[in-house]
């Protein structure tokens, strides 16, 4: 297949995002109910290059600067967290193309609508070395964007040794790649929030995967550029934090609209005219703005180092880790405040605050939002050896 080429400047995508954001906003209830993006919308976004934003240019990707990508992500987050989540998940994973065998990367992204989804392995997962590749077994969960994905990436531990005396060249975890029809999709995604991500599970039963369709997930990148010098976990964290901040900002806008028309029972005063409301709104605005500024500052420092030096300090990595976690946790507080201001009207599905409330509290349960990352930062600040993933 021939490689698709897409524009590589941020101005193009910022202009193109507007109509897509409007379509996402209009389809938000359908996305939530059907637990997926509308196929025509996902296809059109793929055709417009929105799943190739971080893909190397050598593969027909835009290879945008990561700060530019976050601008686009924040726009989609205000319309629907699930779509924004998939955009981040699928685009960040596309940076792994720079670590795959080059021919395999061209095979996958030679398809114009290519999207790769992935998910963490369960304890049942194991890749056994055999002649020419691996035999793969197991179940993987939380594969966001499964419906519109074309390929599946399975991270797996590798068994020591193998059949016919075959051994793995590296006994650490590997990522094994398969066209989606080669796996069994399992629908365990019955949640209260982020339903539209379609984060289904998949099973693999004794499937042979050729060596050239596998790679070490943290191996060296063959593509140049600062984007591929940043640990993928931090790219995920920054993007998901940006989604959370977008949800929080939109929740405040919803609460402002409710406050201008809602008169609490027996109060005789509009919600907006109550001092409690005014104080709550002011505090929530400050929380969201401060968390966003912290994330932008930490991310900016790290990005500048990646661009100018090609290396990152531990301080820069940990600062971004804690800033992303803080943005997610603080966004939840902001959404809770907005939800409370909406009163009894907020409990109904017809109020858009309800979906944001549910989405936000699923986001906080993701590993990128766990409190343990504060401990990592604390260890580093106290002069201890920091533990964790950063």
UniProtKB/TrEMBL annotation:
Matches recorded under Pfam families: Acyl-CoA_dh_2 (PF08028), Acyl-CoA_dh_N (PF02771)
Gene Ontology CC annotation, any one: cytoplasm
SUPFAM superfamilies: Acyl-CoA dehydrogenase C-terminal domain-like, Acyl-CoA dehydrogenase NM domain-like
GO biological process, alphabetically ordered: fatty acid beta-oxidation using acyl-CoA dehydrogenase
Domain Acyl-CoA dehydrogenase C-terminal: residue ranges: 239-367
Key words of the record: FAD, Flavoprotein, Oxidoreductase
Required co-factors: FAD
Domain Acyl-CoA dehydrogenase/oxidase N-terminal: 23-94
Superkingdom classification of source: Eukaryota
GO MF annotation list: acyl-CoA dehydrogenase activity; flavin adenine dinucleotide binding
UniProt similarity note: Belongs to the HpaH/HsaA monooxygenase family.
Protein name per the record: Pigment production hydroxylase
């Amino acid at each position: 297949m021939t490689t698709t080429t897409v524009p590589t400047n941020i101005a193009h995508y910022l202009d193109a995002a507007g109509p897509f954001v409007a379509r996402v906003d209009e389809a938000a209830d359908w996305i939530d109910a059907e637990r997926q993006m509308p196929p025509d919308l996902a296809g059109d976004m793929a055709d417009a290059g929105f799943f190739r934003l971080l893909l190397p240019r050598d593969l027909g990707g835009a290879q945008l600067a990561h700060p530019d990508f976050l601008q686009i992500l924040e726009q989609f987050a205000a319309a629907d967290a699930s779509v924004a989540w998939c955009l981040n998940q699928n685009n960040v994973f596309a940076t792994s193309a720079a670590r795959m065998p080059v021919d395999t990367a061209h095979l996958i992204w030679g398809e114009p609508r290519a999207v790769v989804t992935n998910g963490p392995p369960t304890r049942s997962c194991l890749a056994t070395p055999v002649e020419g590749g691996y035999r793969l077994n197991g179940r993987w969960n939380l594969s966001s964007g499964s419906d519109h994905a074309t390929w599946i990436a399975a991270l797996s531990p590798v068994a020591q040794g193998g059949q016919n005396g075959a051994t793995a060249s590296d006994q650490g975890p590997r990522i094994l790649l398969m066209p989606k029809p080669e796996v069994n999709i399992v629908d365990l995604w019955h949640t209260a929030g982020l339903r539209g991500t379609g984060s289904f599970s998949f099973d693999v039963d004794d499937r042979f995967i050729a060596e050239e369709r596998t790679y070490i997930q943290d191996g060296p990148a063959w593509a140049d550029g600062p984007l591929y010098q940043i640990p993928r976990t931090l790219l995920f964290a920054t993007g998901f934090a940006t989604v959370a901040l977008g949800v929080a900002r939109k929740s405040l806008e919803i609460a402002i609209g409710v406050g201008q028309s809602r008169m609490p029972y027996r109060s005789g005063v509009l919600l907006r005219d109550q001092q409690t409301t005014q104080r709550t709104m002011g505090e929530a605005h400050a929380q969201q703005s401060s968390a966003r500024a912290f994330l932008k500052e930490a991310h900016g420092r790290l990005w500048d180092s990646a661009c100018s030096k090609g290396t990152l300090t531990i301080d820069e990595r940990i600062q971004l880790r804690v800033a992303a976690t803080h943005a997610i946790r603080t966004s939840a507080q902001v959404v809770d405040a907005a939800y409370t201001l909406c009163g009894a009207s907020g409990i109904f599905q017809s109020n858009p605050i309800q979906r944001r409330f549910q989405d936000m509290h699923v986001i906080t349960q993701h590993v990128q939002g766990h409190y343990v990352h504060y401990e990592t930062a604390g260890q580093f600040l106290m002069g201890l050896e920091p533990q964790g993933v950063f």
